[in-house]
Amino acid sequence: MNFNKFKKLSGDASFRHFYRSRNSIIVYCIKNKKSNLLEYDAINKILIKKKVIAPSLISQNYKKNYIEIEDFGDLTVFKKFKNNKTNK
């Protein structure tokens, strides 16, 4: 997959790289595919089942080292709490 046409997002401390497509996020990794993609998706499914908001899997191509997940937009938890003046 050619990631040049997507916007690269800040990642986390893992080997995952995040790219924004039109309506979704592409999570790509080369190293440790099991822990960086399969377990990432499994944890999201557990969170969703427990009614915790987490991105749903849209599609996957584990052989090519990426998954596509739901995009929640630019609002981060940090930004949400920073703007909430009533309960710091």
- Count of beta strands: 5
Distance from first to last alpha carbon: 43 Å
Rounded mean pLDDT score: 82
Helix % is 25-40%
How would you spell out the order of helices and strands? Answer: EEEHEEH
Please give the count of helices. 2
pLDDT under 50 segments (min length 5)?
none
Main β-sheet, spatial strand arrangement: 1-2-3-5-4
| Rg on CA atoms, Å | 14 Å
Shape: globular
Measured by DSSP, the beta-strand proportion falls in 25-35%
Helices and strands in order:
Elements: E1 7-9, E2 17-20, E3 24-28, H1 33-49, E4 57-61, E5 66-70, H2 77-83
Antiparallel strand pairs: 1-2, 2-3, 3-5, 4-5
Quick overview:
This protein has 88 residues and is an alpha+beta fold. It is built from 2 helices and 5 strands, in the order βββαββα.
3D architecture notes:
It is a single chain. The protein has 88 residues and is of the alpha+beta class. 27% of the residues lie in helices and 25% in strands. It has helices at residues 33-49, 77-83, and strands spanning 7-9, 17-20, 24-28, 57-61, 66-70. A five-stranded antiparallel beta sheet has the order 1-2-3-5-4, covered by helices on one side. The protein is globular. The termini are far apart. The mean pLDDT is 82.
